[in-house]
Design goal:
This protein has one domain (4-234): NAD(P)-binding Rossmann-like Domain (Rossmann fold). The protein is 48% helix and 16% strand. The chain is built from nine helices and seven strands, in the order βαβαβαβαβααβαααβ. The longest helix has 29 residues, at 96-124. The structure holds NADPH dihydro-nicotinamide-adenine-dinucleotide phosphate. Residues 8-9, 11-15, 32-36, 39, 55-57, 82-85, 105, 132, 134, 177, 179-180, 182-185 line the site of NADPH dihydro-nicotinamide-adenine-dinucleotide phosphate. NADPH dihydro-nicotinamide-adenine-dinucleotide phosphate is lined by residues 8-9, 11-15, 32-36, 39, 55-57, 82-85, 105, 132, 134, 177, 179-180, 182-185.
Length: 241
């Protein structure tokens, strides 16, 4: 039977690419989202992938929905922590709410999703936990103290959990994208893209969501079991960690 993979924020952007990549690789994929019902319905209709709406920052909602997914679809063997937000402000103008929103969605979510699933993975002696960080968690970014902190925190989480779960057949890894051509990045004016962004990317172009998906599919594979606690950068050479 096909293994079940959950992709948080799997209905749009990079997450959509990951959902489609895992489906193509033979997984039974489930995608979650927060509130954009229209995008989720369109995604479900186009791809025949089941969608579940819940807030990854809410532990009780995660617990309840994960139990529902496991009873309706099957035990989740592959967890892709992809959902994430930005609330950019230079630190001297950052409000507590900007900080809390980003830490809650981008970092607390790792506990909220992984904790309810870890016991089952340990019992089955199998699991793949893959979290999507960012180049800005590796190098820092002006206006993103909150986001850079959360995205770097995700690496520490993964290295620690990788050690705890290695003997149980569970790998824990991180994929760290650079600039990917999602709606958000495509909305950047061409002049800014050409003068401020592309010159810093040695490959000379933006990445595509399916290039992140390819990396996730690679790490999710059964024969990737010797890779754990790793971070793979997918950034066109923009930052070599
Ligand atoms: P998008 O904004 O395109 O999509 C985000 C997805 O996450 C949506 O499905 C959204 O749901 C969901 N989501 C947001 N908040 C929550 C929440 N509280 N609970 C549940 N789901 C939530 O993001 P991207 O595709 O651009 O980014 C995906 C990941 O990749 C993020 O973690 C981001 O930080 C990271 N990243 C992105 C880069 C880029 O260039 N785009 C570069 C480096 C890293 P809904 O549709 O309902 O809003």
């Amino acid at each position: 039977m096909a293994r079940v993979a959950l992709v948080t924020g799997g209905t749009r952007g990079i997450g959509e690419g990951i959902s489609l990549g895992l489906k193509e690789a033979g997984y039974t994929v489930v995608a979650s989202y927060a509130g954009n019902d229209e995008a989720a319905a369109k995604f479900k209709e186009a791809n025949g992938i089941e969608v579940y709406k819940f807030d990854v920052g809410d532990f009780e909602a995660c617990q309840a929905t994960l139990a529902k997914i496991e009873s309706e679809v099957g035990a989740i063997d592959v967890l892709v922590n992809n959902a994430g937000i930005t609330r950019d402000k230079p630190f001297h103008r950052m409000e507590k709410g900007h900080w809390d929103d980003v830490i809650r969605t981008n970092l607390d979510s790792l506990f909220n999703l992984t904790r309810p699933l870890i016991d089952g993975m340990r019992e089955r002696n199998y699991g793949r936990i893959i979290s999507i960080s960012s180049i800005n968690g590796q190098k820092g970014q002006f206006g993103q103290t909150n986001y850079s902190a959360a995205k770097a925190g995700l690496v520490g989480f993964s290295k620690a959990l990788a050690q705890e779960t290695a003997a149980k057949g569970i790998t824990v890894n991180v994929v760290s994208p650079g600039y990917i051509a999602t709606e958000m990045v495509r909305a950047v004016p061409k002049e800014v893209l050409d003068t401020k962004i592309l010159p810093h990317i040695p490959v000379g172009r933006l990445g595509e969501a399916n290039e992140i998906a390819r990396t996730v599919v690679f790490l999710a594979a059964e024969d990737a079991g010797f890779i754990t606690g790793s971070t793979i950068s997918v950034n066109g050479g923009q930052y070599m960690a």
